[in-house]
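User: Before I run my own analysis I want an independent prediction to cross-check against. Here's the chain; please return only the structure tokens and, at the end, one sentence I can use as a sanity check.
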Amino acid sequence: MNNKLRGTGVAIITPFHKEGSIDFKSFENIIDFQINNKVDYLVFLGTTGESVTLNNDERNAVINFAVEIVRDRVPIVIGIGGNNTQQIINTIKKTDFSGVHAVLSVSPYYNKPQQKGIYQHYKAIAGVAPLPVIIYNVPGRTGSNINAETTLKIARENSNVIAIKEASKDLDQISRIIKEKPGEFLVLSGDDLFTLPLLAIGGDGVISVTANAFPAEFSAMVKHGLNGEFEKARKINLWLLDIIQAAFADGSPSGIKAALSMKGFCQNVLRLPLVKVNKSVYNHISKILEEMQKFPVLK
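Assistant: Structure tokens:
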């Protein structure tokens, strides 16, 4: 499984109808778009998928639908995380993982646990998870960082914890993890702008937001980086730079949903407390997409 999660994973959005229900037809088109453009795996029910706004029935429906549509063409990762360890354990025990290949679990947010608490949290999850587990460190959203020592301790002492999605933007910390990690443990970028630097220091790939709209280009950039072809990777990275920045300028997944709506994949609908990007950002994204269409980086 480690090798199958090396490369480009996509944190898939959850498309909605205007009245707020899940738009499964658009969902199918987005999934097929990713697979047809050679991404390595798909991640559902993450932050980008607005998972915290879905009820249990909707979460189960998303998992079942993903398995049905993907049809084992690529691995499926699902997000099961939060700041109540016992609740996560209960959710894992109740979840049907048929057709699913790994679990992505975000570090506890809001509570601001000590490093010891973070370690115990992941140890408890690893103890019940029937699938490989990916740690997700995103201090900008959780309010606390998983330091390198804690990540390494989790990786060394829990064999089914196979990767970390790192969004700390701390290259010192990430370099330490890469240097001292167990051999098969994967270090994945959790920040699109940091993907190429992470690959340059020995990282293994990305779980990307921007790839929702540009799967072929992002996948090509990551493949070049993993192959040491950094001149080719830099060219694509710079081509993607403006849209990456614009997609996060007024919140995520608001930006990428705006871009996908402009490309005809879904309606520009989010669930509260998220709202659409403001008009100036929307227009800016539209102009960037027009320019990217005029000058494609892949021919």
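Sanity check: The chain has twelve helices and eight strands.
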